[in-house]
Amino acid sequence: MATTTHLSIVTPSSTKFDGPAEIVVAPGAAGDLAALPNHAPMLTTLRIGVVNAGVYDSASAETASGPATARVAFAVDGGFMEVLPDRVIVLTDTAVSKDEVDVEATRAELQRAEEALAQKTAADDSHERRAVAWARAKLEVAGRAID
Question: What does the CA dihedral 5, 11, 12, 14 come to, rounded to 10 degrees?
Fold first, then answer.
């Protein structure tokens, strides 16, 4: 039985991550889901949120309990995830890593989005809710508390 699966996170402009992962946790449209090596095949849509993966960290020494692992996280703006026994492929329009998040600008973005949502009087507030969710996902991937 394999101990890792191959994870690829792909946007139209680049491959954001391509490597082995011990587990992949993603924001499925119907709720968060996890994929382990040898997972049954499936295809699902993703909502705005964070894709987390536990990956082997070759820079760290092996621990007494086994190889050291690191966390890889990307904020995604929705998309699709295909899970196969030996690989997981995430297709999304936008994937943002911790290093790509401007925390102060994102906090201001979140504040504007929350204010727009609070002032919304029409029945359709999906655009404002998406803006709030996207700003929150970027702050989560940056490891910053959401006030």
Answer: -80
pTM of the model: 0.85
Q: What is the DSSP track for 9-27?
A: EE-SS-EEEEEEESEEEEE
pLDDT at 133 over 70: yes
Q: Could you give the CA distance from residue 147 to residue 58 in angstroms, rounded to a whole number?
A: 35
pLDDT range class, residue 143, cuts 50, 70, 90:
confident
Find, among 133, 65, 120, 67, the residue nearest to 94 by Cα: 133
CA 134 – CA 140 distance, rounded (Å): 10
Assess contact for 110 and 139: CB atoms under 8 A.
Answer: yes
Dist. CA 108–CA 110, nearest whole Å? 5
Lowest mean pLDDT among 3-7, 125-129, 142-146: 142-146
